[in-house]
């Protein structure tokens, strides 16, 4: 009897203990689940916070990159402008240098036009102004072109404009020839006489006397013409003009 009671007690005890063990396991599981949920929630919150921070950091980095890119573009633009300015400055400098050369050349040309030049006038060396030389040469070219009326005007203007010129004697000589060319023999005689009187030692003086005699002959004044030739032969006996004058005497009546 006692053995049955003990066995029953053991069975009951085992059953009670097993129930307690089961209850204990359920409680631990619930705690574990709660802890797991809590940790999961915390991790999710941390992940959300971390993601938000990362997104903010990424956004900041993007803003920084955008700002850096804008700065880089601005720097590129500045560099391009500087290069453009350098190129423009180089072009401007080249243009300025060219203008300086042109101005320098112009000044040199003008100075050369103003600087006296050495010339040979009827075998004699002289120094004259460039403008003076140009005016005389143009007048002589007009005579050679056969425009005697114009050449007379040009030579007379030359005498008024360039008083005391080294061309004075030659101007008188050629004025006489131009007047003879336009058949103004009276004025031609006056021009030749003025030339010989003012420059008796001039190489063209014998020619001037012969031309004066020819003008007098054209004026139907053989007496004056013969007298002029006689003066020519007497003053310049060895000249070609004197020899031509002697021959001319035979035709003057």
CATH topology (fold) name of the domain at 127-249: Serine Threonine Protein Phosphatase 5, Tetratricopeptide repeat
> How many strands appear in the DSSP assignment?
2
Which H/E pattern describes the elements? HEEHHHHHHH
Mean pLDDT: 83
The CATH architecture designation of the domain at 127-249 is Alpha Horseshoe
Separation of termini? 213 Å
Describe it for me?
β1 (117-121) and β2 form a beta hairpin. The longest helix is centred in the first third of the chain and has 113 residues, at 2-114. The protein is mostly helical and 253 residues long. It is rod-shaped and about 175 Å long. The chain has helices at residues 2-114, 130-144, 148-161, 168-181, 185-198, 205-218, 222-235, 240-249; strands at 117-121, 124-128. The chain has a domain at 127-249: Alpha Horseshoe (Serine Threonine Protein Phosphatase 5, Tetratricopeptide repeat). The protein has a two-stranded antiparallel ribbon. The protein is built from eight helices and two strands; from the N terminus they run αββααααααα. 82% of the residues lie in helices and 4% in strands.
């Amino acid at each position: 009897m006692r053995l049955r009671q003990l066995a029953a007690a053991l069975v009951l005890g085992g059953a009670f203990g097993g129930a307690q063990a089961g209850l204990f396991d359920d409680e631990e599981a619930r705690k574990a689940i709660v802890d797991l949920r809590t940790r999961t929630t915390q991790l999710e919150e941390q992940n959300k916070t971390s993601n938000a921070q990362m997104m903010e950091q990424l956004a900041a980095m993007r803003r920084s990159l955008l700002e850096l890119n804008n700065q880089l573009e601005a720097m590129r633009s500045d560099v391009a402008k500087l290069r453009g300015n350098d190129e423009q400055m180089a072009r401007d400098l080249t243009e300025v240098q060219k203008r300086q050369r042109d101005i320098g050349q112009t000044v040199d040309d003008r100075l050369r036009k103003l600087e006296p030049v050495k010339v040979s006038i009827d075998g004699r060396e002289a120094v004259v102004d460039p403008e003076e030389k140009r005016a005389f040469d143009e007048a002589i070219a007009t005579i050679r072109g056969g425009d005697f009326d114009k050449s007379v005007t040009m030579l007379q203007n030359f005498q008024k404009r360039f008083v005391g010129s080294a061309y004075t004697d030659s101007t008188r000589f050629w004025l006489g020839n131009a007047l003879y060319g336009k058949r103004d023999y009276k004025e031609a005689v006056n021009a030749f006489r003025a030339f010989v009187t003012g420059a008796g030692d001039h190489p063209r003086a014998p020619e001037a006397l012969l031309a004066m005699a020819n003008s007098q002959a054209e004026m139907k004044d053989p007496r004056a013409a013969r007298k002029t030739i006689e003066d020519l032969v007497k003053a310049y006996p060895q000249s070609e003009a004197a020899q031509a004058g002697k021959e001319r005497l035979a035709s003057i009546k």
